[in-house]
Design brief:
The chain is about 70% helix and about 0% strand. It has 13 helices and no strands.
Length: about 180
Amino acid sequence: LATAPDVFAATLLGCAAGNHAWFDAIAQKAADAATPAVRADVLARVIAGVQAAPEVENDLPRARLLARLLTRLFRAEIAQLDGDVLRRLSQIDRDPARVVAAILASARPDGARLVDVAALAQSTNPELRAAGISLFAQRPLDDLVADLDAVAAFLSADAKEPREAARPIAERIGRERPDA
């Protein structure tokens, strides 16, 4: 599994909910033995597989197990998700997109450009929107001050949730950084 990203990703996508301590152990060993490039490839393949297979998302126990496995096995890769990945994910309109939302919610807040997080927070999918808002709310104040256009995008979003999340942050910027 550590040298075959297609097999590793297919194995993760095929996991079924239940008590699979043996599977967790094998997946952990394979992830630990894989090179960073293979790990990133596996994560990309699993995300693409989830997007292409609504049966994965609609099977809640399976989706939760997969989200738990991915966030544990690929934390470093998730933290480095780039803007292109976030933009593609923000365009998913299928509901529930649980796995992708769980992956994004666990990402390091400063792992992507703020403008891409803003796009995610304006997704029509409520779970992806919540993941984007969560990433936005965790951003360091310096990042927010450095990209006031993205903060403005939150404040002027069509959806109510991003606007509500941005108000206290904008007030904080005004209080703590009046020169911004």
